[in-house]
Automatic annotation (TrEMBL):
Origin: domain of life: Bacteria
Keyword list, A-Z: NADP
Listed name of the protein: NmrA/HSCARG family protein
SUPFAM superfamilies: NAD(P)-binding Rossmann-fold domains (SSF51735)
Domain NmrA-like: 8-307
PANTHER family: NITROGEN METABOLITE REPRESSION PROTEIN NMRA FAMILY MEMBER, NMRA LIKE REDOX SENSOR 1-RELATED
Protein source organism: Mesorhizobium captivum
Pfam assignment, any one: NmrA
Record keyword NADP present: yes
Family according to the record: Belongs to the NmrA-type oxidoreductase family.
Length: 330
């Protein structure tokens, strides 16, 4: 990969060490059609070093409020930018994710970026008429609205629930009679899931390959629709281990299985609001093209393929970029 070949468009990837960002940076580099500038807070993390080895230009840039001038500098010279916001637990009345998203977008415009791809989600507040509280969805939708008003071409990817949530946050518990998967969803309702580490990249690369085609579009990124019980049954089949589903859907069940969440009331409210929204209204708003990502990426991993590829056996895994204290399951 030749980063020196300036005839290739430069794409900046914000949050390049995140699961989504890493996937985007890798896909763009693997295509051979782009140069990539990877923005991270830390050059020494394993993902940042792996991207540098692959040929990315890795630069330090803040992914927090108040860093707009540095972000603008880091985005200069880029034809495109992939923008994402990290997991942030909202504590009202502060608006950290919304304000960070606006600052990222403003920085991209100030830097002269032509096309922004933002990782968004649905407006739960509008869809549920304010009855469900899932600010990490709604604030992304508000950032999207803001971006649409800026003088820059934009597209939006909406990633499904991550398979990796069970490896990082809602880790199954081992016991005498097998593994218990305490899942934040009822057993029998199919929900969209994806592997962010392999699904985000092909979707975003497709958009940068055809910017005019995707200007203004919202593009769901889905591996498959699968129910919680089917996920457990698939785990049993693939690993040969004994496992069972347990509900962590209601507030009471969530706290019974994950008592450490009780220390963060806003997180609990948000998780309950999110899953009630997803179950009662569907994760995606009506009319979204739920087949798009599989068409552009026929190799998108199903849960079964993800299990086989990752060889995951039900234990806690970390994706390496984030300090333990920063992990929040949003
Ligand atoms: N979990 C799901 O099911 C799901 C589904 C759809 C969308 N999402 C959304 O996806 C986003 C997270 O993406 P991801 O899972 O790819 O991210 P991730 O792997 O958790 O990484 C987040 C990155 O952001 C940077 N960062 C900056 N400030 C941070 C902070 N305060 N806490 C944690 N990380 C921080 C870190 O990179 P540096 O240290 O290198 O700067 C880190 O690598 C969230 O906005 C979430 O709402 C999640």
């Amino acid at each position: 990969m030749s980063q020196a070949d300036t005839s290739k468009p430069l794409i900046a990837v914000v949050g390049a060490s995140s699961k989504q960002g890493r996937s985007v940076a890798e896909s763009l580099l693997d295509s051979g059609r782009y140069r990539v500038r990877a923005l991270t807070r830390r050059l020494d993390s394993q993902p940042a070093q792996a991207l540098a080895k692959k040929g990315a230009e890795v630069v330090v840039a803040p992914l927090e409020l108040g860093g707009q001038a540095e972000l603008t500098e880091a985005l200069k010279g880029s034809a495109g930018a992939f923008l994402m916001t990290p997991p942030i637990v909202k504590v009202p009345p502060a608006e950290p994710e919304l304000n960070l998203g606006k600052e990222l977008a403003d920085a991209a415009v100030a830097a002269g970026v032509e096309h922004v791809v933002f990782s968004g989600l649905e407006n739960v507040e509008a869809i549920t008429r304010g009855t469900k509280w899932a600010p990490h969805f709604t604030d992304k939708a508000k950032i999207e609205d803001y971006i649409r008003g800026l003088p820059v071409r934009s597209s939006f990817v909406y990633l499904a629930f991550y398979y990796t949530n069970f490896l990082e946050y809602y880790v199954p518990q081992g016991g005498e009679d097998g593994i218990t998967f305490a899942i934040y969803l009822p057993p029998d309702i199919p929900m969209p899931f994806c592997d962010p580490l392999t699904a985000a990249g092909p979707a975003v690369r497709e958009i940068f390959d055809h910017p005019a085609r995707y200007t203004g579009e919202v593009l769901p990124v889905i591996g498959e629709f699968i129910s919680a019980q089917q996920m457990v049954d698939t785990f049993v089949r693939v690993t040969g281990k004994r496992a069972r589903y347990a509900s962590a859907y209601s507030r009471e069940d969530l706290l019974r299985h994950f008592p450490s969440f009780a220390g963060n009331e806003h997180l609990v409210r948000e998780l309950v609001g999110m899953v009630e929204y997803a179950v009662e209204y569907g994760y995606y708003a009506p009319g979204r093209d739920l087949t798009w990502s599989r068409k552009v990426d026929p190799n998108a991993l199903t849960w079964e393929q993800f299990l086989k590829r990752s060889k995951w056996q039900g234990d806690l895994l970390s994706y390496g970029a984030v300090a333990e204290a920063e992990l929040a399951p949003t």
